[in-house]
Specification:
3 strands; mainly alpha; disordered N terminus; three-stranded antiparallel β-sheet
């Protein structure tokens, strides 16, 4: 009886190990005898050999999560930081802690530059808005100015302007300057005398 009881735990142990082996995925078994990929490209090549499309997509997602860097044609690796929209050269398939620190420092610089650019853009937009407002104010005021400019200003006749210019340039007590004035006075006297008899005749 004691030997039967002693054999039961060992049988249970063997059954538990057998169940574990059966339930373990085939992929885990395969990784025991297959070497792990060195970088994303090797991992992606292995994923391409998957039997179904779903397995292929799942394997590529795992490769992407496992390896951040991408192999460069001339050797070495490059890391793309989508937050900064730029790439960084790295030594291996994943950034080292020192490389990650430099990438983070560059991201801080990038954020500061973006902040300054946004402030400058906001100031420029404000200035443009003020200029537009000033132009609209000027255009609102311009019609009133054009209306006042349209009012006709009395202008002297060219004959009178020429006489004024001559009178200003003439030397006093000279016959050439005094004669036009005398002739104008004589003409005025003629008009006066010629108009008087006609009025008398009418009466």
């Amino acid at each position: 009886m004691p030997s039967v009881i002693a054999s039961r735990p060992s049988a249970l142990f063997v059954a538990a190990i057998g169940t574990f082996v059966v339930l373990t995925p085939v992929r885990a078994h395969a990784q025991w005898w297959r070497s792990a990929p060195a970088d994303f490209e090797a991992c992606a090549d292995a994923a391409e050999k998957a039997k179904t499309k779903e397995e292929k997509t799942s394997s590529l997602a795992e490769c992407n999560a496992k390896f951040a860097g991408r192999r460069k044609p001339g050797g070495g690796y490059t890391y793309y930081d989508f937050m900064q929209d730029r790439t960084f050269d790295i030594a291996g398939p994943n950034p080292t802690p020192e490389e990650q620190k430099k990438i983070d420092e560059q991201y801080t610089v990038y954020l500061e530059r973006e902040r300054r650019n946004s402030i400058a853009a906001a100031l420029m937009a404000k200035q443009q808005q003020q200029q537009v407002q000033q132009v609209s104010l000027r255009s609102d005021q311009e019609p009133a100015r054009t209306e006042t400019a349209k009012v006709p200003v009395p202008v002297a006749s060219p004959v009178k302007q020429a006489a004024r210019v001559r009178a200003a340039n003439c030397a006093r007590s000279s016959f050439s300057c005094d004669w036009p004035r005398l002739s104008e006075s004589i003409n005025d006297l003629k008009k006066l005398f010629s108009s008087t008899p006609s009025k008398q005749k009418k009466s």
